[in-house]
Amino acid sequence: MKWLILDNARTHTAKAYSLLHFGKSIGTRCPTGTIKYADQQGVKQVIDCYFKIGSNKGLSKGLIEISKDLNVKLPTKLKLEQLRDILSNHPAFKI
Predict the structure, then answer these.
(1) 38, pLDDT greater than 70
(2) What is the pTM of this model?
(3) The domain containing residue 41 runs over which residues?
């Protein structure tokens, strides 16, 4: 099981989460508001885990939408376990 360390900006604390804590689709479980990571060039990136605008405002994005934000190409039909496996290789989900 891979774990992801996420920083809480308000309390300046970090907490570890597994990809198992994230749901697949919009409105499913999400343990954090943002994912902070360094990309392959070492540049710090921040991905919002909740929609800020639009008809889904306030809802969690789910791993499929987060994948789009990370520019991860996904197969058309995909099970949650396969999605987690693909994302476990992305810098955003590596410790």
Answers:
(1) yes
(2) 0.81
(3) 3-93
